[in-house]
Amino acid sequence: MTPIRVLIVDDHGIARRGIRSVLESNPELEVVAETADGEEAVQKTRDLHPDIILLDISLPGISGIEAARRIRQCAPETRVVFVSQHDSISLVKEALDLGASGYVVKSDAGRDLLPAVEAARTGQVFVSRTVIARGWR
User: Fold this and answer.
1) In 1-137, which ranges are continuous DSSP H helix?
2) Is the Cα dihedral 32, 76, 97, 69 positive or negative?
3) Collapsing DSSP states into helix, strand and coil, what is residue 35?
4) Could you give the domains of the chain?
5) Burial of 11 (0-12, 13-18, 19+ CB in 10 A)
6) Rg of the Cα trace of the chain?
7) What would the pLDDT profile of 87-136 be if each residue is shown by its tens digit?
8) Is the pTM here over 0.85, yes or no?
9) Max alpha carbon distance in the chain (Å)?
């Protein structure tokens, strides 16, 4: 089976390492690159054609929201899962309205990250349990 190619985008190195560690527990996933800013995320998407991008919202330069807009234009087949500390219902709605496949609150990443990637792979939408507890419908 061909591995699912993943790009990690987060401006905090510790967060990137933690995300990578979770992903590496699944042999079906291959981290093809990491980056710390939105502009580079768009460029790496163009260059590497990842299947899934795990994208933080708060990034230097352009935000993750703006990066996702640009990624949708240059690589509409690439699925985006936001991984963010923000748990605002309105922000989650904005992210999913952009066409994101999921939204994981960082505090839930240990439990929710792999199910979110699987949902994105199969064309489903995933929302983190913290967001659901805050009233997501």
Assistant:
1) 13-24, 38-48, 64-74, 89-97, 109-121, 129-133
2) positive
3) strand
4) 4-133 (3.40.50.2300)
5) middle
6) 13
7) 999 999 999 999 999 999 999 999 999 999 999 999 999 999 999 998 88
8) yes
9) 38
